[in-house]
# Entry
Amino acid sequence: MSETNPKVVAFVGMPGSGKGTCTDYLHNTHNWPVVHFGNMVYEEVQRRGLDNVHDETFVREDMRTQEGKAVLAKHAARKADEYAASGNQTIVFDGLYSWSELLYLRKKFGDNLLVIASVAPRKTRYQRILDRKDAHRKYTSKQQLIDRDIAEIENLEKGGPIAFADYTILNDSEPQTMTGKLDAILKSEQLI
# Structure
């Protein structure tokens, strides 16, 4: 258990399921700091002087090979402790990926870890990703998205944390519906 005992709300889900919608909402509504697991990989990609989607996958898997399967969770936990030391009592994790990461975070934060899975139909997720118009849009075909899903399930153990989440939010309509479901969970957990 962390000495600073922050409450950590961690989101897990496949790409396009709504994790970012939830974390942005919590940051904007409650001013809770967000630790983006994916950004840690992007930072490492840039540090290595790489820049394309294949490099992102390679770097993520290389980090896991070099530092263990829970590498991103270890980095995220250190950031959470830094935020907690600065007075933040609730920290949000965007993009918990693997079973190993979940086990590490459960051991570190114990009952202070709340895992929420966001899920959406596969076709809906793919369309959301293909419709994105932001700087991180690196996928331009359905086949790339299928390949990414398979790699995340097979190589990153992503299915376990989704199945073992404390709560699951179905995100198949407007963002306000999803954030309403999220608020209900946070109220039941006495976080808001």
About this structure: Residues 7-180 form a domain with the Rossmann fold fold (CATH 3.40.50.300). The two ends are 23 Å apart (CA to CA). The first strand starts at residue 7 and ends at 12.
